[in-house]
Amino acid sequence: MTLSTSILLIIALAPLAGCLLAGFLGKAIGRAGAHGATILGVAVSCALSFWVLYQLVWGGAPVYNQNVYTWFEIGRFSASVGFLVDRLTAMMMVVVTFVSLLVHVYTIGYMADDDGYQRFFSYISLFTFSMLMLVMSNNFMQLFFGWEAVGLVSYLLIGFWYKRPTAIFANLKAFLVNRVGDFGFLLGIAAVLYFLGTLDYGTAFASAGSLVGRTLQVTQNTHWDAATVICVLLFIGAMGKSAQVPLHVWLPDSMEGPTPISALIHAATMVTAGIFMVARMSPLYELSDGALSFVMVIGATGALFTGLIGIVQNDIKRVVAYSTLSQLGYMTVALGVSAYAGAVFHLMTHAFFKALLFLGAGSVIIAMHHEQDMRYMGGLRKYMPVTWITMWIGSLALVAIPFTSGFYSKDAIIEAVGASHRWGSGYAYFCVLAGAFVTALYTFRQMYLTFHGKERFVVVHDHGHGRHAHDHAHGHAAAHGHGGADAAVSPEEHPSDEPGHGEPGVLHHPPKESPWVVTLPLVLLAIPSLLVGFLTVGPVLFGGWFGQAVRVEEANDVLGELAREFHGATAMALHGFWSLPFGLVVLAFAITTYIYLFNPALAGRIKRALKPLYVVLDRKYWFDTVYFAVFARGGVALGRALWKGGDAAVIDGALVNGSAGLVERIAAGMRRLQSGYLYHYAVAMILGLVLLLGGYWLIGQNGQ
Amino acid sequence: MPNLTDLLILLPELYLTAAACLLLLLDAFIRPEQRNVLHWLSLAVVLVAIYLVVANQPPFPVTAYGGMFVRDGVAEILKVFALLCTALVFVYARPYLADRKLYVGEFYTLAIFATLGVMLLVSAGNLVMVYLGLELLTLSSYALVALNRDSAQSSEAAIKYFVLGALASGMLLYGMSMVYGATGTLALAQLHGAAAHTAMPNLLVFGLIFVIVGIGFKLGAAPFHMWIPDVYQGSPTAVTVFIGSAPKLAAFGMAYRLLETGLGDLAPHWQQMLAALAVLSLAIGNLVAIVQSNLKRLLAYSTISHMGYLLLGLVNAGPEGYAAAMFYAISYALMSTAAFGVILALARAGFECEEIDDFKGLNQRSPWLAFLMMLAMFSLAGVPPLFGFFAKLLVLQAAIHAGMLWLAIVGAVFAIVGLYYYLRVVKVMYFDKPVEGSEVRVQPDAGLRVLLSVNALVLLALGLYWGPLLGWCRAAFPG
What distance separates the 2 farthest-apart alpha carbons in chain B? Predict the structure, then answer.
């Protein structure tokens, strides 16, 4: 059994077809047509992705690695479209298309009243296409294309509600921060081409060994190890896309986009592209201990310190966003200790439970009529049982309760870091352990604040809708007057956008469970959040499931060490009950339960007592402030200086205006030749003839 | 005596001649309001001609009438695209002509005769055939330019075109006579290799120079370009779009037949001359285009610069260069039909839509047409990943491989200069505010809209998938 090119092409192109249909013919095919076309496209992709995975794992199909189309070749540089489909790719394809499919379905309910309905479906299908191109690529060019394309869609979607200033600020920020990462990434790709002479994965990895001992001469006496340079540069790209410290600042702000996007792009798939990329490049990373240490330290820092910020957030989506940052840190740490399989395994489980948590948060936001502040929630469990239960499942997976899928992946990472001897692994071990405690703190806090305790909102039965100037033109006005079963409310209205909904904690209707298109994806995501780890941990993590897709040197193989102590998923989970991380989770559970269920006043007292710490976290370690002061303002100042000094005087004055002036004078002169007089034209022709004859007389003849 | 084989080889041309005569007759008998019949018939005639060219394609080059007429890969490709362009022009032109009381049978028959000239020219195997094909093409073109008899501008353009064309034609004929004098033959195939045996090498080169003047005029390469801006601007746009497409393919075919098939031995001479013409064309075309405010005139200067790039391919004087130049000619023909097509789609009775200012804010009025125009402009400018980019890349490569790196650098520099005026059109469409009080009314003709969209999107598609076309071009020039 072998993989067929046409099936792979259909997988990649079906979402693109949906995107084009919804995007260009959106008006013609209407809302139902738009979601029908895009969902069909993604569903086809998803089904075929499962088929491909089946063929690879059970059908014994060999790895597929072929160029499908060569666009152009210039010297050794060639731009082609090709697919490399092994188990790593197949797993990513399944995760991407599965989550994307559920998010498509969920969007029907979530965006029901948005004017940009078709545009939204077109974007998310375009995203799915781009992401598939990224993960299925067999060369760096296509990887870069997918990389930039998902970035573009992310930019478009963060600013989806482009009339909101905060959304514009957020998408600009995401764009700029990602440029920093992409610059490193592009340099990394250039370094690959420079040292290895090819952009094809297969060839590059096969000749990766030749990098050993090669250096990049920076100055007379400074030589940098080639593999380290390549790996660090590529990782800088991953830092931007996967939001690693210090390029993480864009991700929390990206929550300005609609919630389905937060779930799909900014939690489950795109932000994990960096993790996937490093795992894919494992043959290169294995050559450089230095680069892996760098990766590990960056990841560990993110895992702990961004998690801490999550504790002080009040916006339900932002808690999940900081949790995403922290979990991305975990994956990165795993990469740093050469546990690539562990990182990708966590990527997969995280995709399920984090998408679940985001979509659950979205469901809560729908019910709360675009209120995102958890201080005005509480006691929601009796209004929306499905959301409540599924979100608890996601939360248990997130805090890694044994037997949930999150446990297997996260515990393996913690164990792997503990077993590693790489420089910095002590620090990393501390970070991931403390991170487990912190994760439990913010997760339980979020669940209690949202679903348990007293209701901190009031329902005012006020039917005076007439006096509310609903801004329907704005594109996503709420549909609370309709009351129909499927009149899902488009949330996230900026409070100031709509008069009458400005007072926090005041609802006009009691919260109610979301429609089935919203809850069905929650249930479908809850199942893998619970089970996928238990079912797959053995082969995927410890069974060398990825085969040749990831390469680990013998000396670095921490997962191999762990595998010797692995006696089945059940034993691992039972053992998990007696491990330190689980103890920390129980401690966090006890603390949060006491504070938020029995003694809510305590939270405020602790906040006051630890005021300095609270301020540090609330200000997010002043990353934004510093960036804004140094880069944004400094950039503007530098720009102004260069503009006045360099640009205006030298470039504009001498080069641009000077040369433009020259060109214009020449052009004006030549234009005068075009006098309109017939005899001038004839003379020009004769002159041309004379010149040719004269030229021949002077040069041509001597040449003979 | 002509035998059946000769006739069969000539079938597409014979068919087109007969069809054009019948159309002419028919035109005399139908009422003006039945003109649509003529339109559709003409279109059908052209499409059938394409079919005949493709279907009867011999597997290897064949000649008819003792070598007068050649049917090979080069001729086939050029004919297919010339006919295709003519068909496009018919569809694009109809609403424009109808709005201006120019919707007459002459337009169709003249255009078909001109296309017939193109077909004979690119299939010429003999100097006389070259001349006959050329005259058929140019004489029909003069009449087409003057189609709008009441317009002083058109008549002036036609007179200028005619006088200068006659001058160029005379020079070409004079050159041919010298070549004949030096070699004693008119057959291109026999000319090849004759240079080594001629007793009068100087006379032969003199003949070559006069021939090059003729080619330069037909291509519109500087300094033989003076007619182009006036004719492009002066003609009705429906005629300009024709002059800018199929005849450019013919000019390439004529240059190839004369310079390679006939005077290939003299390549070291004509390479230098063509290089000089290329540099002049690039400079004059790109620089003067910058100061134009009339879009048709701007496109005329852009044509001159594009012919400079086409010459870059010819300068290579090898199969690679010829393939690149032919690829370039095809790409130019498709790009210019798209660009002029947008002008035609926006023009209406009493409004030509040929000033750049007329395109201000087009994106707000008609985003789709603005997008199509942007594709055409980007492709003309050579922005990847559009068709024009690869065409430019190939001719630059051909020049480099011919050892003329300096020429390729000149070409690249002027490509950057050229970006300026193409981007200006895009800027005007997307970033300027529409002129108050002006309105945009896109021609409602469905054929025009659909084909124009396809035409412009093909520029993108062929940019992404250009391998087969290039392969086809390369196969026509076996090393």
Answer: 71
